[in-house]
From TrEMBL:
Residue ranges of the TM segments: 59-79, 91-110, 116-137, 146-170, 190-209, 230-248, 254-270, 277-298, 304-322
Organism: Achromobacter arsenitoxydans SY8
Subcellular location: Cell membrane
Protein name in the entry: FecCD transport family protein 3
Membrane topology, as annotated: Multi-pass membrane protein
């Protein structure tokens, strides 16, 4: 349709990128502390405080939001292509819950483990939980596509219950809440750099986008074209698991992001992954930045964690997507 071609062209993407830059500027400007832009060039102690606030807190937080939003949105797109279901993403497949369990395990057994060690452990647990999810899908008759996210939500609920039990047993419920609720209020320079790993993995997915587009058409189709479907699936799930682990370790879980953004893009651009990834990444950053700004403004100077804002808006959009997809499926 003409309107889809108009929106989905380079002009539409340029408009989204312009909106993304405006939100980045707004994110840097909003905060509990006062930072008038004129103070940056006023000289003296006031300028020094303003520059310190900008470089230590405001810019790192904005970069963290941008990197997390882009990476998680792309991770959701990869998972949907591999599972061949539009209602799957890390928080509806048990991936994030498994990563959280991994962080709890390493905290209990080796509390002095560096952040990179926690990330690797969380990645391993996330991959194991995702593979368990795929194994369950093979054993359950999938009479409707809505069964797939239901299985993932049940699996995630079971894993979360186990995690909560051990967190309660060892007095780590407060830490568990921090891992499961996305919150960027504590992000400072030196505490968000792991998210660049997630951004790099998202770029790697773009390089292999054509392969994952073919993989999304099924094992037999991919094998007929000479692709190793099992290896592609494993690498794709490893990318998704690593991105989920990096975000959880840095800022906690962010629900529905990898579900809403790829679905919105697919309604306009279809299933061509190479064409969709720039849109998914840009809109993921827009969505996360917008939700974070809303959370900071509603009860300013206090703030609502971004995980709560995304959860509320994401659940509403998820219900709308369920209704839309059901109407399309008849």
């Amino acid at each position: 349709m003409n309107w889809r071609r108009t929106i989905g062209g380079w002009g539409g993407l340029a408009a989204v990128l312009a909106l993304l830059l405006l939100l980045c500027a707004a994110s840097v400007s909003v905060g509990a502390g006062q930072m008038p832009w004129s103070a940056l060039w006023s000289g003296g102690e006031e300028a020094e405080r303003a520059w310190r606030l900008l470089m230590v807190s405001r810019i790192p937080r904005t970069l963290a939001l941008l990197l997390a939003g882009m990476a998680l949105a792309v991770a959701g797109l990869i998972m949907q292509m591999l599972v061949r279901n539009r209602f799957v993403e890390p928080t509806t497949a048990g991936t994030v819950e498994s990563a959280t369990l991994g962080i709890l395990v390493v905290t209990l057994l080796a509390p002095d483990t560096p952040v990179i060690g926690k990330m690797l452990t969380a990645t391993g647990f996330a991959l194991a939980g995702t593979l368990l999810f795929l194994a369950l899908l093979r054993r359950v008759p999938l009479r409707t596509p809505f069964i797939v996210p239901l299985i993932g939500l049940i699996l995630g609920g079971v894993i979360h219950a186990v995690t909560t039990f051990f967190a309660y047993r060892f007095d780590l419920l407060q830490s568990l809440h921090a891992w499961t609720t996305g919150d960027f209020s504590g992000v400072l320079r030196g505490r968000y750099e792991l998210l660049w790993i997630g951004f790099g993995l998202a770029c790697a997915a773009y390089v292999a986008a054509d392969r994952y587009t073919v993989a999304g058409m099924g094992r037999e189709f991919a094998s007929n074209l000479g692709l190793n479907h099992a290896r592609l699936t494993l690498v794709g799930l490893l990318i998704v698991s690593a991105i989920s682990a990096v975000v959880v370790v840095t800022a906690g879980g962010i629900p529905f992001l990898g579900l809403i953004v790829p679905n919105a893009v697919s309604l306009v651009l279809g299933d061509n992954m190479r064409r969709a990834i720039p849109w998914v990444a840009a809109l993921g950053g827009v969505f996360v930045l917008a939700c974070d700004i809303i959370g900071r403004l509603v009860i300013h100077p206090y703030e609502i964690p971004i995980g709560t804002v995304v959860g509320v808006l994401g659940s509403i959009l998820f219900l709308w997507l369920l209704r839309t997809r059901r109407n399309r499926l008849g």
